[in-house]
Amino acid sequence: MSKLRVLAAIAFVVVIAAAIAAFAIAWRPAIAAIEPPAPQSFDRALVKRGRDLAAIGNCNDCHTAPGGKAFAGGLPVPTPFGTVYSSNITPDPDSGIGRWSEAAFRRAMRFGVDRAGHHLYPTFPYDHFTNVTDEDDRALYAFLMTRPAVRATDHPNELSFPFNQRFIIAGWKLLFLKGGTYKVDRSQSAEWNRGAYLVDGLAHCGACHTPRNGLGAEEANASFSGANVENWHAYAINAQSHAPVPWTQDALFHYLRDGWDADHGTARGPMAEVTANLSSVPESDVRAIALYMASVFGPPPQGRAGPAKGNGAQAAAADQPGAAIYQAACATCHESDRPLPYSGIDLRLSTALSAPDPRNAANVILSGIRPVSGERSPIMPGFANSMTDDQLVALLKYLRSRFSTRPPWSGVDQAVRNARQTETVALKTSRGSDSAPGGLMQRDKP
Q1: How far is residue 279 CA from its own chain's centroid?
Q2: Which of 64, 53, 123 lies closest to 96, judged by CA?
Q3: Half-sphere exposure of residue 186, counting CA atoms within 13 Å on the CB side?
Q4: How far is CA 296 from CA 80, 213, 236, 240, 262, in A?
Q5: In this structure, is the dihedral angle defined by the CA atoms of residues 153, 159, 162 and 163, taken in order, positive or negative?
Q6: Does the global pTM surpass 0.90?
Q7: Domain locations in the chain?
Q8: What is the dihedral of CA 251, 230, 201, 140, to 10 degrees?
C-alpha cells in the first residue's frame, strides 16, 4: 500500500472517529411520554413551595408573552445570534410539558435537554439551574403541572445558520456547562448559603448582571460586573457598582422586597419584574439573598459614604439647555419635601445618572413608572409624548452634569433614539405583574 493511501486511510478513520464522538456527545435519548398527572395527585404544600420557587426564578415573566396566558411561552428573547422564543411550560399534553415525567423535567433543568432529547438553547439558564436540588425541582414540577393547561402554537426561533442547528449546543455545553448542584460553603452561615444557592441557582442573577463572551457564555472572571440586556443596562452588583451610595444588606432587602429604596430609587425595566415576584415569596428567602449579595458587594470603598450635599455633585450651569426643562418637568417632584416613595428620589442618589451610559435614564424618562394598585409604590409620569428627542438629549446631559460626579456621557443622541424605539415596552414597578405565578402576586399582609 502506498504512503498516500496509508495517510488517506488514517484520515478517513480520524474523520469517522470524530463523527462518532460528536454524535455521542450531541445525542440524547428521548424519555418516554406519560399521561398528564391529575393536579390533585400533587401535595398542596409541595405545590405552594414550587410556587415560591417559580417566583424566585422569575419563570412567569420569561415564559409569558405580552398579552398571553401565564407560562404559555412565546416571549421573544433577542440574542446576538438571533431571536429565541420561550417555550410553553403549562401541562398541555401537546404543546406544553403535560407528557413530561419528573425525570424529563429534571433533565431539562440540569442539563438543558428536553423530553424528546433535543438540546435547549442556553437562553433557558440551565447553566444556573444545574445548581438546583432534586427536591426543589420536584416542587417546581408539581407547581407547573397544576397550572391551567394552555394550548399554544409553537413559534419557530429566528436564528441564522449554524446557530439554528441544535447539535452545536452540545459543544457549547462541553465548554461552559458545569454539572453538579450547589456546594455548601461550611465557612459561611446557613442564611448566607441559602442566599448563594438562590442567587447562583433559580434566581440566576448573573444571567443578566454578568457580561458574556463571544459565544454567549458568562465571563467567568467578571461575575456580577454589569451587562447589557436588550435596551437596558443591568448594573454591576459587586464592588464595581456605580451606585452613589453603597448598597447595604438592609437596602438590598428593602429594594428587592418592595421594589424601591430611599437611597437607590425604584426598580424599573426587567428588574421591576424580579422585585414584583420577590414581593410574594417568604421574607426569609429575600433576606438570605440580600445577605449574600451584600457580601458580593463587599464593604464600601474607604471615604465613599454617599453624594456630597449642596446644590449638586457638579457645577452645572443654570443656562444649559436642559436646565429649564428640568425645572419645568422634574424639579417639582425631585426637589419636594414629600416622603418617599411619593416624591421623586434625590437625583444625586440615582444610579441611572451615574451609570456608564444613559440608556436606563432615557427609558425611564420616556415611559415613566406606573403605580401599583393598592400598594405604597413610586409613580412617575412618562414624557414620551411631551418631550422631543432634542429636549431629552439636553435634559440627560444636564442631569449628568448636575447630579453625577462622573464625566459626560458620549452617544446620548443614539441612546435616546434607541430608547424611543423601545418605549412601548411596559415598565413595571414592584408587584402587580399580570403574569404572576398562579395569580398570587400579593404577599401575605402581617
Answers
A1: 16
A2: 64
A3: 0
A4: 28, 22, 11, 10, 21
A5: negative
A6: no
A7: 31-176, 190-439
A8: 110
pLDDT (mean) for 205-211: 96
DSSP string, 348-402: GG-HHHHSSSSHHHHHHHHH-B---TTS----B---TTT--HHHHHHHHHHHHHH
Burial class (CB in 10 A: 0-12, 13-18, 19+), 153: exposed
Q: 10 exposed, middle or buried (CB, 10 Å; 0-12, 13-18, 19+)?
A: exposed
Q: How far apart are CA 12 and CA 32, in angstroms?
A: 37
Give residue-wise pLDDT tens across range 303-359. Answer: 555 554 434 455 556 668 899 999 999 998 898 888 777 778 899 999 999 999 999
Q: Which residues touch 44 (CB under 8 Å, ≥6 apart)?
A: none
Side chain identity, residue 58: N
**CA–CA distance, 213 with 81 (Å, rounded to integer):** 13
Q: Angle formed by the axes of helices 359-367 and 412-421, to 10°?
A: 40
- CA dihedral (345, 425, 428, 49) positive or negative: negative
Residue 40 DSSP code: G
Does a cis peptide bond (omega within 30 degrees of 0) precede residue 162?
A: yes
Mean pLDDT value of segment 60-89: 94
* 264 and 258 Cβ atoms separated by less than 8 Å: no
Here the cell at position 148 is: 391551567
Q: Which three cell numbers stand for residue 378?
A: 413610586
List beta partners, residue 217: none
Contact of 217 with 275, CB cutoff 8 Å: no
Burial 394-423 (b: 16+ CB within 10 A, else e): bbbbbbbbbbbeeeebeebeebbebbbebb
Q: Give the best-scoring range by mean pLDDT among 236-245, 338-347, 377-386.
A: 236-245
3-state secondary structure of 159: strand
The alpha carbon of 261 is separated from its chain's Cα centroid by a whole number of angstroms, namely 19
CA–CA separation, 227 vs 233, rounded Å? 6
